[in-house]
UniProtKB/TrEMBL annotation:
Coiled coil: none annotated. Keywords: Oxidoreductase. Pathway: Mycotoxin biosynthesis. Signal peptide: none annotated. Transmembrane segments: none annotated. GO terms for molecular function: oxidoreductase activity. The keyword Oxidoreductase applies. This is Uncharacterized protein.
């Protein structure tokens, strides 16, 4: 017996979700975009001194990659709260930075959750870009540029998540 698993990434638009109750399991599998689908962008991987793993000393810098809502969105007529996967992953990277705190204020359970989550996100993306091996022999102080990757336009996700936050945050006041 063979089992075929098919995963498709469909970007739902706002109008695609109007008939959903957003209760229980009745919600869209992806954050509905008002703009439709995401465009492709190219990202060249580069070594950077930004976002060091220095615990609380770099926490403010790690916070700069989160939108005001921390990646949470409210959907549907009942204003149900969800988190967008991209921002959950960025949150987990921030938690791993804080895992280097000598006072161990981040619990092992949260750290293990985040490592597992990032592991699954990496598998889910299945990026087939090839990169030169030999990180031990590269001088990253001058040889900083890596391979170019094809990505979805994450800046559009930030815009839509911020618009969603502005809408539901204003309705709460």
């Amino acid at each position: 017996m063979s089992i075929i698993v098919s995963i498709s990434f469909i970007h739902f638009t706002h109008s695609d979700t109007l008939d959903l109750a957003h209760l229980g399991h009745d919600f869209p599998p992806t954050f509905p975009l008002h703009s439709g689908t995401l465009s492709d962008v190219h990202l060249t991987m580069e070594e950077s001194t930004n976002f060091p793993l220095t615990s609380w000393a770099s926490n403010d810098q790690w916070f700069t990659i989160a939108p005001l809502s921390a990646g949470y969105v409210c959907l549907g007529p009942h204003v149900r709260l969800f988190v967008v996967m991209m921002f959950h992953g960025l949150h987990c990277m921030r938690i791993l930075n804080l895992a280097f705190d000598p006072l161990h204020i981040i619990g092992d359970g949260h750290i293990n959750h985040c490592l597992g989550y990032l592991h699954q996100m990496t598998l889910c993306s299945a990026d087939l870009t090839v990169e030169p091996a030999g990180w031990k022999t590269r001088d990253f102080s001058w040889d900083r540029v890596g391979a170019m990757h094809k990505c979805w336009d994450w800046s559009a996700v930030y815009v839509e998540v911020e618009q969603n936050y502005a809408q539901w945050n204003c309705s709460q006041t």
